[in-house]
Design a protein that fits this description.
By secondary structure, the protein is of the alpha/beta class. The protein folds into two domains: 184 residues, 3-Layer(aba) Sandwich (D-Maltodextrin-Binding Protein, domain 2), CATH 3.40.190; 138 residues, D-Maltodextrin-Binding Protein, domain 2 (3-Layer(aba) Sandwich), CATH 3.40.190.10. The chain is 34% helix and 19% strand. Strands 3, 4, 5, 6, 7, 8, 9, 10, 11 and 12 form a ten-stranded mixed β-sheet that branches. A two-stranded antiparallel ribbon has the order 1-2. Helix 2 links the parallel strand 3 and strand 4. Helix 7 runs parallel beside helix 8 and helix 10 crosses helix 12. The radius of gyration is 20 Å and the shape is globular. It starts with a strand and ends in a 5-residue tail after the last helix.
Length: 329
């Protein structure tokens, strides 16, 4: 098993002890182009999304499992800001939405990203929400209607574009597209009647919770079975995701939709001792079970490995830990 050191551009084989010797310094080491000084700088997200809730739980979980790592949350605008900051080495780790990560792992042009996976965050099921008193029940019903896609160019809008592309639809041409400056604005616009639907995604996404908690109630619109088949066939990183009944207020029936895995990604050349420590701490949280409001319930070793497009995108220290526990043979 090889380990990548901060000053290297190519991997070379190092003895296991070379990585483990750095574990005590995991919170203080500084790598090539690295932000890591006085703690592991963690790019989070903006208010109104599910990432910000997960980020708080992640920081608390790592502190509980291994306080020496010293994760320092850095407020950002989410994936759209975390990716360039990670690439520039101004963050050590950061939250990145699934569709954004896939564009990095499998670019249409140029070399794949040097950002690496620390762990999965959770599967992000995407769907529309409308007020329960509206007449809209299918995606076709929303064509030509005002739909909120959240911020233009942001992760949620990108996911919607992937879903609609597989259905031969365009969010700007086939709908009256609305883009918001802040994620928290969309639910209010829908409830006030200024839009017919809102696209959202995530594990108990706060926007969905807000709409569903309104006295008028909410209705969720997802692709039908044939549409789901088309989406996962065209975009093989997307998968079917079942949402159990009761996940949101007034949601009496289970839902089936599509989505992808989001990640905690590491900057290029993050010291393997840090990746190893983070993977070990997260595994400790996983084995403890049910802590931190269940926010990290999907950040498991099994889910992380299952979500990878290929093993090369796993951070070197995390890979070493996974091999030690037998998760990778």
């Amino acid at each position: 098993m090889w380990s990548r050191t901060p000053s290297q551009t190519k991997p070379r084989r190092l003895p296991r002890r070379s990585v483990l010797a750095g574990l005590a310094l995991a919170g203080a080491a500084t790598g090539e182009g690295g932000a890591q000084s006085g703690g592991v700088k963690f790019g989070t997200a903006s208010e109104g999304g599910g990432f910000i809730i997960y980020a708080g739980a992640f920081v608390d979980a790592i502190k509980w499992a291994n306080p020496s790592i010293g994760v320092k949350p850095v407020p950002t605008r989410g994936s759209v800001e975390n990716v360039p900051l990670l690439q520039e080495g101004k963050l050590d780790i950061g939250l990145v939405f699934g569709e954004v990560a896939q564009q990095l792992f499998n670019p249409k042009e140029g070399a794949p990203t040097k950002l690496k996976v620390i762990c999965t965050v959770y599967a992000s099921p995407g769907m529309f929400v409308v007020r329960a008193d509206s007449r809209h029940r299918t995606i076709d019903d929303l064509k030509g209607r005002p739909v909120i896609w959240n911020a233009k160019g942001a992760a949620l809008a990108l996911q919607a574009r992937y879903v609609l592309d597989a259905l031969d639809l365009d969010p700007d041409k086939d709908f009256e597209a609305i883009y918001t400056e802040r994620m928290i604005d969309g639910p209010a616009m829908l409830l006030e009647g200024r839009a017919s639907a809102l696209w959202g995604s995530g594990n108990r996404w706060p926007g969905f919770v807000k709409v569903a908690s309104d006295p008028r109630g909410a209705r969720f619109i997802t692709p039908d079975d044939k549409q789901i088949d088309r989406i996962v066939s065209k975009h093989n990183f997307m998968r079917r995701i079942a949402i159990p009944a009761g996940r949101y207020p007034s949601q009496s029936d289970p839902l089936l939709t599509v989505g992808s895995w989001s990640y905690v990604l590491a900057r290029p050349y993050l010291d393997d001792s840090v990746g190893y420590s983070l993977a070990a701490a997260l595994h400790k949280v996983e084995k403890a079970g049910g802590l931190f409001g269940g926010q990290l319930a999907e950040s498991t070793v099994k889910n992380t490995l299952a979500s990878l497009p290929h093993l090369d995108v796993l951070q070197g220290g995390a890979e070493l830990y996974y091999r030690e526990i037998g998760a990778i043979k």
